[in-house]
Amino acid sequence: MSNLTLIVCLLVVMAMAYQLGMVRSRKVATINPVQRMHSRPQHYGMMVALWAVLPAFFILVIWNLLAPDVIAALVQQSLPPEIQSQDAQAVAVTLRRIANLAANFGIVAEAADWELAAAAYMQQLQHSSGLMLTALMAAIAAAGLTFSYFKIAPQRRARHQVERVVKAVLVICSTIAILTTIGIVLSMVTETLKFFSFIKPTDFFFGTTWNPRFSTTGATDQGSFGLLPLLSGTMMIAVIALLVAIPLGLMVAIYLAEYAPAKLRNTVKPVIEVLAGIPTIVYGFFALVTVGPFLSDLGQTLGLTIRATSALTAGVVMGIMIIPFISSLSDDIITQVPKALRDGSLGLGATKSETIRKVVLPAALPGIVGAVLLAASRAIGETMIVVLAAGNAPALTANPFEAVSTVTVTIVNQLTGDNDFASPQSLVAFALGLTLFVITLLLNIIALVIVRKYREQYE
Amino acid sequence: MTVAETEKKPLPAPSKVQQKVQQSLARRQRQEKLFRGVGISAVACSLLLVALLFINIFSKGLPAFWQATITLDIYFDPAIVKIPEQPVQGAEESDNDFRERDLAWRSAVGMVNYNRLIQAGLEKVIPDALQHRRDLARIVTSGERFALRDLVIADPTLVGQTKTLHLLTDANIDVWLKGNIDRSLPDAQQQLSAKVREWVDQLAAEGVIQNRFSFALFMNPDSRSSLASAGLAGAFMGSLYMMLVVILLAVPMGVAAAIYLEEFAPKNKLTDLVEVNINNLAAVPSIVFGLLGAAVFIGWFNLPMSAPVVGGLVLSLMTLPTVIIATRSTLKAIPPSIRQAALGLGASKMQAIFHHVLPLAIPGILTGAIIGVAQALGETAPLLLIGMKSFVASVPAGPFEQSTALPVQIYLWQGNELRNFFEARTSAAIIVLLALMLSLNALAIWLRKKYEKRW
C-alpha cells in the first residue's frame, strides 16, 4: 500500500477510535455514579485516538526512512561478487539502474540478466516490505486502541495526556523556525566549504576580477572568482536606492505624522504601502521598459551617456520600492516620541518645523537609523530588479551610469546556467549566498538592537 | 493684574533680543512653509510614483487582453480529414484494450493536416491567395491547428460540415495592426512580407480580422512555436499548487508556533533566541531561501526539480515568520481578562486558549495568513533557483509535475525576442498577478475591518 493510503487509513482509524473512546467513557461514567470522571468524554475519545494512531504513525515514518537503505543493502549483497568489488560510485550507479528497472522505468542500454534478477529481487523485497509495514502498523494501532480503551476509568487523566501531546506538537512547530535557520547555515556552509576546496578564500574575498569560465573548459583553468566587483555593484545600487528613498520616505513620514489631518493620513498611508506589496519582478519590468529608457533619454539631453540598464536605473527603482519601508517604520518611530518633548519646544516659541527638526528628529534618530538599516538590508538582498535592470556587467566601476552586477544577480546566473552542480561555477553561488546572509544578518541585528534600545528609552 | 490693565499699560520699548526675534519671524515662517511644502511634495511625489507605475503597466497591458482574431468559415473537408470512426468500448473489451484503441484513434486524428483546412478558409476571403501560398501560411498562428484537432476530437460529426471559427492571427500581425511596429520601416526590417501586410490591412478594413477578447491568454499554457497563443494557464496552476502547499504548511505551523511562543513558552534564554531568530528570518533575502531549497530539498532530499511542491516548501519556509509574527501580535492584543475568566471557571490553560482566545484571534490570524500568502504569490527569485524557470508547454496535472509560476512566467516573457508583442503580453500577465494579489490584500483588509475589535 502506498504511504498516502496508509495515512488515509490511519485517519479513518483515528475517527473510529475517537468515537469508541467517547462512547466507552460515557458508559464508564454511568457505571460509576459515585466517582466523577476526571476529564470530559471528548478527552477520552481523543486519548484513545492518539494511542491508536501516533505509535503507528511513528512506525510509518521510521520505516520510510530506513527501508530503502535496508533494501538497497540486501540487493547489493545479492549482486555478483565482481560487481560488488567495484568502487563505491560504480556500485551506486548500478543500484540506481536496478531501482529504475524495479520501478518499470526505462534505462539506458540493454539490461543484463543479473540486473534483471536483482531488479526482480528488489521488487519482491519492496513488496514484502510494504506488507510487513501494513501488518505492523495494523497490529500496533490495534494494540494501542485496545490498551487505551480498557484504561478508560474515572481516575484516568485523559485531558492531561491529550494536552501534553498538543503541547508537544506546538513545540515542534515552533522549532521549525530554528531548524530553517540551521538548515540555511548548514547547507550554505557545507557547499561553501566545497567551493573553498577549489578556490582559496583569499582569492574569493579579495579578488578584483569576476570571470568564472564554464566548467567544461577543464579543471586546470578555473577562472577567477573575485567577490569585490559584485560587492561594489551591490553597494552602489543600495546607496543609490537609499539616496532616493531616505529623503522621500522620511519627509512622507514626517508630513503624515505631524502635519496631515487624520483623513488624509488614513488614505495616503495604505496607498503608499501598496508599493511594498507589489512583487519585485513588476518593479524589474518597470525599470527595464520604462525607467531605463527614460533615464537614458534624459542623459542624452544632458549630454551624459547613461546606459538603459545601469546601476542608476536599478537603484532608482529599488529606491521607489523601499520608500514604504522607511516611511512606515519612521512614522511609527516619530509618533512614539513623547508629546511632552514637542509641547516643551512649542511652548518656548519654536515653530512646528523647528520643533520637528531640532527636537523630534534628534530624539527619533536612533530609530530612524534602525529603519534605514533594515531598508538597506532589503536593498542588498533584492534580486529581481537587479536581474532585469542592472545590466549584469561584473566590473569594478565607480560610474553609476554603467552596467554593474550584484551578488544576487550572480547567484541566479550561476545556479540557473548549464553548470554541473558540483563544479566551482555552481558552488560559488552558495559562497555568495553565505556572504549575503551574513551581511544582511548583521545589518538586521544592529537595526533590531537600535530599535529596541530606542523603544526602551521612551517606554 | 487683569486683562484690562495689561492692555492699558504702554508697551515697553522692544529690547534688542525682541527686535532680533521680530526680524527673524518672517524668515522662520517662510522656513515653516517651505518645510511643510517639502513634506506635501514628498507625499505627492510618492503618490505620483504609485500612479505612474500602475498607469504604465495598465496602459501597456490592457490592449494585450484583446488580440487580432480572424473569423473564417472552416469546411471540415472529408477529403482532408480522413479519420477512422471513433472507437466505442465493446462489452467484453477490457479497459486497457479500449484505451489503446482510443489512443490510436486520437493520434490518427492528430495526423490530419489541419493547416490545409485553414488555408482553404483563407482562400475564401483573400482573392489572390493561390498565387502566394507561402504568405498564406503566415496569417493564422500555428497553434490554432491544435484547436481544430480538439474540435474534431470533441465532436467527430463535424467532418463534412462548415463552421465559423475565430482563430488567432500570428503575433506579428497583432503587432502590425496595433501599430506597435513602425509602419514606415523598409521591407528588410519588417517581420511580415509586403503581401501579408497588404492582405491584413484589407481584412482588418473588411472586419474579417478584429480585435477580440483573448481567451487564449487564460486558457493556454506557454508556447514558443505559436507565440500568439501563449497563455498563463500553466503558470497559474503552478502558482495555485504552490499556494495550496503554503496554506497547508505555513499557516497551521505558523499559528501553532505563535501559540506556543506567546502563551506557553517560559521566558528564558532559549525562547529569546527563538524570537530573535524569527525576526531575523523574516528579513533574510528571499534568494537565500532559494539556495536553501536548491541545496536541501533538491540536493539532499532528491525532490524533483521545477515541481510546485518544492516551490511551495521553499515559499512556506519564507512565509512562516510572517504568519508567526502576525499571529503573535494578534494574540498579544487579546486582553488577559479573557484568559483569566476562563481559568477562573476551571478551564485548563489549553482549554482557555483553544476555546476562548483562539476564536477571538481568528480574524487577525486570517489577515496575517492572507498577507503572507499574497507575498509568497509574488515571489520570483527563490523559484528561479529550484529550476522553475524552465519552459513548460503543458498545464501541470499535479504538484509533482514540472511547472512554472505566474511571476516566473512574467520573467520568462519579458525576455522573449519578439519584444513588440511580449512587452504588452508581459504587462497583461503582470495585471493578472497584481489583480490576484490586490484582491487577496483587499480581502485581508475587509476581514480586518469587519471583525476588528478594540478592547
TrEMBL record, chain A:
Domain ABC transmembrane type-1, first and last residues per copy: 231-447
Primary location group: membrane
Annotated GO MF terms: phosphate transmembrane transporter activity
Compartment annotation: Cell inner membrane; Cell membrane
InterPro entries: MetI-like, MetI-like_sf, Phosphate_PstC, PstC_N
Membrane-topology annotation of the record: Multi-pass membrane protein
PROSITE patterns: ABC_TM1
A GO CC term attached to the entry: plasma membrane
Transmembrane annotation, as ranges: 6-23, 44-66, 131-153, 165-189, 235-259, 271-292, 304-326, 359-380, 427-451
Annotated keywords: Cell inner membrane, Cell membrane, Membrane, Phosphate transport, Transmembrane, Transmembrane helix, Transport
GO biological process, one term: phosphate ion transport
Similarity comment: family membership: Belongs to the binding-protein-dependent transport system permease family. CysTW subfamily.
Stated role: Part of the binding-protein-dependent transport system for phosphate; probably responsible for the translocation of the substrate across the membrane.
Name under which the protein is recorded: Phosphate transport system permease protein
Organism: Alishewanella agri BL06
Automatic annotation (TrEMBL), chain B:
Listed GO biological process terms: phosphate ion transmembrane transport
Membrane topology (UniProt): Multi-pass membrane protein
Broad class of the protein's primary localization: membrane
Superkingdom in the source lineage: Bacteria
CDD domains named in the record: TM_PBP2
Keywords, ordered alphabetically: Cell membrane, Membrane, Transmembrane, Transmembrane helix, Transport
Sequence intervals crossing the membrane: 34-58, 240-261, 281-303, 309-331, 352-377, 428-447
Gene3D superfamilies, sorted: MetI-like
Protein's recorded name: Phosphate transport system permease protein PstA
Pfam families xrefs: BPD_transp_1 (PF00528), DUF3333 (PF11812)
A GO-annotated cellular component: plasma membrane
